[in-house]
Design the sequence.
C-alpha cells in the first residue's frame, strides 16, 4: 500500500485550490406593488429575504441557489412615478429603477375592488466575482441585467392587496482577465483583456400578497418563478420570499432632515 506523506498531501491540497472560478448572483425577490402614493416623498423601507441564482464561470458546474437579505427603498415622486432602490449586501447585488402607475387608484385612495396597473424599468448589477486559474491568471466576472415588468393588482380590503407581475430581463455577463495581483506567478503567460462575453435573457412571473396590520407597517409574501439561461445552462425555479415594510410620510421625512 502506498503511503502519502504530509508534504505530498499539502501539495495536493494547494494545487487543487489553485483554480477558483468566480461567480455572480442574480436575485429573484421583487416586492413591487402596482399602487403608487400620490403624495411626493413617501418612503417605504423594506427588509426581507432574497433567494439568488449563483452563476459560476465553470460551465460544468450547475447554477445553484443561496439565501440573502433584501434591503430596499421606494420613494414616491409625483403623477404616478416612483423611484426604487434595492441591495443584497451578502452577494452583493444592487438595483434601481423607475415605476409608473398606469391606471387605478393611488395608494392613499385605494378602496376594495380597485384594480391597478403599473410598469417598471430597472437595472440590476452583481459585483465582480473574482477567481484565478491554475496558471495564476486572475479574472473577474460581472453581470448587468436590464429589467422590464408589467404589474397588476387587486385590492381585497383596505388593508389587503394582491398583485402579480410578468417580467423580462436582458443581461450581459462579462469575464475579464486582470493579472496584476498574480503577475509574478504567471509570467510570461499572463492574460489580459476580455476572455468571454455573453448576452442572454431571463423571464418569469411573480405573485404577491401584501397586508397592512398597522398604519405604517406592511407585510408581503411573494412567490417568484424564473427561467434562467446562462452558458447554455437552463434552470427554472420557484423562489419564496417575505418582506417587512416601514413607511415614512413627508412629515416624518422633514422631521428627520430638520
Sequence:
Amino acid at each position: 500500500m502506498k503511503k502519502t506523506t504530509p508534504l505530498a498531501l499539502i501539495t495536493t491540497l494547494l494545487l487543487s485550490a489553485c483554480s477558483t472560478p468566480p461567480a455572480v448572483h442574480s436575485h429573484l425577490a421583487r416586492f413591487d406593488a402596482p399602487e403608487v402614493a400620490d403624495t411626493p416623498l413617501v418612503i417605504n423601507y423594506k427588509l426581507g429575504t432574497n433567494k439568488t441564482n449563483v452563476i459560476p464561470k465553470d460551465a460544468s458546474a450547475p447554477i445553484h441557489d443561496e439565501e440573502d437579505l433584501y434591503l430596499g427603498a421606494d420613494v414616491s415622486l409625483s403623477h404616478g412615478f416612483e423611484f426604487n432602490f434595492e441591495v443584497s449586501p451578502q452577494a452583493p447585488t444592487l438595483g434601481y429603477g423607475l415605476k409608473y402607475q398606469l391606471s387605478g387608484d393611488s395608494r392613499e385612495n385605494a378602496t376594495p375592488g380597485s384594480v391597478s396597473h403599473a410598469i417598471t424599468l430597472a437595472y440590476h448589477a452583481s459585483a465582480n466575482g473574482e477567481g484565478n486559474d491554475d496558471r495564476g491568471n486572475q479574472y473577474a466576472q460581472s453581470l448587468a441585467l436590464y429589467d422590464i415588468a408589467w404589474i397588476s393588482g387587486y385590492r381585497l380590503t383596505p388593508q389587503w392587496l394582491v398583485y402579480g407581475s410578468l417580467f423580462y430581463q436582458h443581461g450581459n455577463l462579462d469575464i475579464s482577465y486582470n493579472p496584476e495581483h498574480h503577475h509574478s506567478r504567471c509570467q510570461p503567460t499572463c492574460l489580459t483583456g476580455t476572455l468571454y462575453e455573453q448576452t442572454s435573457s431571463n423571464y418569469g412571473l411573480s405573485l404577491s400578497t401584501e397586508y397592512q396590520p398597522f398604519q405604517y407597517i406592511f407585510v408581503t409574501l411573494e412567490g417568484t418563478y424564473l427561467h434562467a439561461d446562462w452558458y447554455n445552462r437552463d434552470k427554472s425555479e420557484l423562489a419564496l420570499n417575505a418582506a417587512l415594510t416601514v413607511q415614512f410620510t413627508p412629515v416624518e421625512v422633514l422631521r428627520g432632515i430638520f
